[in-house]
Amino acid sequence: DDPTFSGVFCENSEKLINVHLFALAAKYYSLSNLGVCTPLEDILEALKGDSQEATGIKPDEFMNNKKSHEVQVMSELVDNIANYCGIKQVIDIGSGKGYLSSFLSMQYNLQVYGIDSSNSNTNGAHERNRKLRKHWRAYQSRGRANLKSQSLEKANDRPAESETKYKTINETLLNNANSLQSQDQAITQDFIPSCGFTEMATSETSIETDADMATRTQSHERKLSEEVLDILNVLPADAVELSSSSHCDCGELCEEQKVQRKITSLKTKASKLSESNLYFPLTSCITAETELSDIIADLQNCMIVGLHTCGDLAANTLRIFTAKPEIKAVCSVGCCYHLLSEQFENQEECCDKVWGFPMCQYLKDKGWCCGRNARMSACLALERVAVGQMLPTESLFYRAVLQVIIEEIYGVTKSDRHVGKTFSKSSSFIDYVRRSLKKLELDDSKLPDSCIMDYYEKYKHRMNELEAFNMLKVVLAPCIEVLILLDRLCYLKEQENIAWSGLVKLFDPVKSPRCYAVIALKKQSC
Description:
alpha/beta; seven-stranded mixed beta sheet; transferase; methyltransferase activity; METTL25
């Protein structure tokens, strides 16, 4: 409807006639250009307050570069949200092999439950737990050493300045930290709530003396020594073995000694358990109706997170968050848009089903539908293509010709089976077709090699057309993704128990194309 882009398509044939204007329109309606995202730096500054520094564990020591980038950025945000809301428990939905879960536990001392529907992923997470346990004490020692080294550097490098200058700097920092809360009342209440737990720090900054540094280091060491006690929250009341009466006559002990022995026993038990369980991997299929208390016995005030939750799982994560009062915050990064279920895609009436799209009432009232092709396009990575990581044209061509063969030779237009990553395992187009037919459980004996190559030669000259078509899909991808993400954001805006919700660009899109997080915090009384 925007007259600026009215010349993109022909009014009569509705065909694309201006590619340049099409690209400009796609960029105009992309998330990065709409101005609806909250900068990550702003939300971190508003949340941090006077939080302590974390110990220096590097995630790239036990995961690849892409995963390391994602885990490091997201875990910092999750920790700040948890600290702001005064919670220690995190539920990681679709946790996979536990990369985010284990890092949140190790780096930030959070009690994390990782829930995944795949037994193999849960088993993999347990195996990573076992391996990480070997490095647990080394990470703690290194963390203490790094913290002490950083404190010494700050104390030595910081120049002597007047109290007036420090006061001015501090006032500026405080103004910046509270800038997001200084908007009008409606926006203020909708951005970062107090959650009834913590307030933004207002104490003046001063030069850190040797005594201050020693106190902070001792405090951090006490925190590390007390980490083992956090694990007690997941134990049933009768799970802790107290000291055996065979070693002493407990009846003759004073109350103070009894309490001390009990605490010692609890620490010993918790220490053993915490070393073997950096976090808690669980296997369960999560739906919108899932009761987390049925899965997690000690469920308490917590936040729910998801790093690249697939298809409907991202939508269900938000629904669980809004429905459960004990969940105070959510941070969800979705992916696999092509696997979303759509309410209006097939025009099937199914009142009881919970759909992945649309979520908000506005799009439901309009009966909005994307369709599978559009959702597939939303998964493409424009930023990667822009820096020279081109689309796999040959494999896409193989897949397109295969579809023609399946439709014309076998009469199959739809199948629940998938070809998967067959191209990388194939030595030629003939080999690719035969491998694919076997995966689809179709009889390849009725298809001679010559017939397969006839199809290849028939469409080979159109490979450039296919590449151009896919490039147009790449350009359009951000527009489709923004529709899905704004649908989720609008759903949260429609809920009365949400104090603030927003979209935040977390990751470098070249490293991690699905880089936007949907974040929300509950109102204080909810």
